[in-house]
Amino acid sequence: MNLWKKRLGRVPGSVWEQSELESLVLADNELSEVSEQIGRLKKLHMLDLGHNTLTSVPEGLAELESLSDFLYLHDNQLDALPSSLGKLKNLRYLNISENAFEVLPECISSMSSLIELRASDNLLETLPDSIGRLSQLRELHLRNNKLCMLPEAIRTLRELRLLDLRGNPLRHLPAAVAELPRLEKLDLRWVETLEAPDWLGNLEERGCLVYR
Questions:
Q1: What is the pTM (predicted TM-score) of this model?
Q2: How far apart, in whole angstroms, are the C-alpha atoms of residue 102 and residue 196?
Q3: Which of 99, 154, 161 is closest to 130 using CA atoms?
Q4: What is the DSSP track for 151-178?
């Protein structure tokens, strides 16, 4: 069901009765809240709540255990997520960019099937060590946050292909980044506070594109 940019203001109750829905687009609808009834849509594979004015998301999202393809929460006013969202074990793509997160929600580290995580344009100052549990992650987008360093736990992201750190006030990068066997692109553009570590050259020699 595609209800993109319909200026709804609120989601019609009839939507929550569509129990067979596999895709629901509610982007750009001036939504300030979403009903707990969303948990009734047990067959959803894709949910788009981007470009709204949400300050929270309902606990009912955690009931969408079939959600596997995409969850878009970008361009809202979120600063936290319910811990119960860690139940979304099948989710492969999560976008929480353009919000107000100062801390990466712990529940994300339990989304064990994530392949791509977009958390750009937030207020993140650190990443939790638990991010190392995302063993399937291939792309990690962290552009325009407030990160000064990355945790050593980054070394366990053995499937990571792309690490986007543009526009962060980085002062230190762990050598663990150089140990990521599949890393193909490391983006350090607009980072003016980092003294380039010696191992960047080693990454480039093995074919990883380093943008700086």
A1: 0.97
A2: 26
A3: 154
A4: -GGGGG-TT--EEE-TT-------GGGG
Residue with tokens 């150089």: 178
**Cα three-residue angle 188-192-193, rounded to 5 degrees:** 105
Quick one: 13-211 is in which CATH superfamily?
A: Ribonuclease Inhibitor (3.80.10.10)
Query: What residue segments make up the domains of the chain, in order of their start?
Result: 13-211
CA–CA separation, 126 and 150 (whole Å): 7
The tens-digit pLDDT sequence of the chain (212 residues) is 999 999 999 999 999 999 999 999 999 999 999 999 999 999 999 999 999 999 999 999 999 999 999 999 999 999 999 999 999 999 999 999 999 999 999 999 999 999 999 999 999 999 999 999 999 999 999 999 999 999 999 999 999 999 999 999 999 999 999 999 999 999 999 999 999 999 999 999 999 999 99
Burial class (CB in 10 A: 0-12, 13-18, 19+), 9: exposed
CA–CA dist 17, 40 (Å, integer) = 8
Q: Find out whether 24 and 47 touch, Cβ atoms under 8 Å.
A: yes
Any idea what DSSP says for residue 85? G
Q: Which residues contact 107 (CB under 8 A, 6 or more apart)?
A: 81, 82, 83, 84, 85, 86
